[in-house]
Amino acid sequence: MEIDSEINETTPKEFKPSTQTCRAFCTAEDYDLKVLKKALDHKFPEYKVMPVVTSDLVHVEVSPDIGGGEIFVFTNGTFVSWGVQDAQVQVFMKNCIRGTAPVELFPAEEIETEDAEFTFDVDEPTDMKGDIIILNPSVPSPTLAKISFSHGLARSAKLSVLEGLLENYLSSTKRIPTLLLYGKKIPLTRKEILMKLGELLSFRQQLNLSAGESFLDTPDFYWARPELEEYYNKISRHLDVRPRIAILNKKLDYANELATILREHLSEKHSLTLEWMIIILISVEVGFNIVELSMEEKRLQTKRDQLIALEEQVDDGYSVHAPTVIT
Q1: Where does the record place the DUF155 domain (predicted)?
Q2: 47-56: b or e for each residue (b if 16 or more CB lie within 10 Å)?
Q3: Rounded Cα–Cα distance for residues 269 and 280 (Å)
C-alpha cells in the first residue's frame, strides 16, 4: 500500500480495525449477586451464567438469538457489557437488574456510564493501544482479560457517581462560607444539619468500603496475577482514575471542613438551647418561690390581723366589765 501511494503520490490510509463497544454502567451502591444468579437461572433462559474465578462478579453470556455478547456484573453496583446491542443492554438492565428485587441495593439517582472500543486480533498480544482494547482470542484466557478491563471501566463509572454525589453535596452547602464571612446565621435546622452530616458519612463509606473493599485500592483479584493487573492499570490510566481520585480527595477535605463547621454550629445551638432551658427553669423556680413567699406573707398578715382584732376585742370587753372605783 505504501509503495502504491508513493507511486501515485497519495497518503496511505491509517489502519483502523473493526471495533465493538464495551460499556460500563453504575446503577446502585451495591448488587446482591445471589438474587441475580437465581433470577437468571430460573427466569431468563436467554442469559447463561458462566463459571467465574472470583465471587464478586457474575459472568453472563448473552444468547446469539438476541445478538450475543457478554456481560460482567460486579457487587459494587456496576455491570459491563461486551459486544451486546444497545437495545439488549437496556432490556437486561430493565428486566434483570432493576426489575428483579432486590438485586439493586440503594439505587443511584442517576446512572453513569463509561465506554471503550475493543477488537480481536490473533496477531497482536492482548493490550490497550490508544483508545482501543486489543484482545487476542488465542491466549489461554481472554475472559480474564475482559474481567480486568471491565473492572477498570466499572471503577471509572462508579467514580463518576461519587463525583456527582460530592458535587451535589458541595453545591447544597456552598452558601455557608459566604454567610460566615458576613457574620450571618446558617439557615439550617438541627434536622437538616444532621442530614447533611449523614450524607457526607454515606459518601465516605461508599468511597472507602465499596463492595467490601476500599475503592482506592487495587482489587485482591489481581494480587497474584500481574499480567491482569497491568490490563486493569492501563484502562485506569486511560480513564484518568488516579488523578480524578486525587481531585475527589481534595474536595472531600473541603467537605470535611464544612462538616466540622456544621458540627460546631450544631453544638453551639444545642448549648445555647440548654442555657436557655436552664434560665427558664431557674426563672420558673424563682417565680414559684416568689409566689409561695407572697402567699406565706399573706397568711402571716392574716394571722397578724386576726390577733390584732382579737386583742382589740379583749380590750373592749375588759373596759365594759371593769368595776367603778368610788372615791
Answers
A1: 71-249
A2: bebeeeeeeb
A3: 16
Residues 6+ apart with CB under 8 A from 1: 12, 13
Of 319, 166, 198, whose CA–CA distance to 263 is shortest?
198
Residue 279's pLDDT is 78
Range among 43-57, 59-73, 312-326 rated most confident: 59-73
- Going by pLDDT thresholds of 50, 70 and 90, the confidence category of residue 6 is very low
Residue 252 has phi, psi (to 5 degrees) of: -65, -35
Instruction: Specify the 3-state DSSP secondary structure of 284.
Output: helix
Segment among 67-81, 133-147, 182-196 with least mean pLDDT: 182-196
Question: Packing angle between helix 226-238 and helix 142-172, nearest 10 degrees?
Answer: 40
Cis peptide, bond prior to residue 102, ω within 30 of zero = yes
Q: Which helix (H) or strand (E) holds 31?
A: strand 20-31
Hey, what domains does the chain have and what are their CATH numbers?
Answer: 20-140 (3.30.310), 156-273 (no CATH)
* Ranges of H-type helices in 48-134: 86-92
d(CA 74, CA 57): 4
What spatial distance separates the first Cα and last Cα of the chain, rounded to whole Å? 169
Grid cell 450475543 in the structure block, residue: 68
- Rounded Cα distance, 88 and 82, in Å: 11
Per-chain mean pLDDT for the chain? 83
Q: Quick check: 208 and 216 in contact, CB under 8 A?
A: yes
DSSP state of 74: E
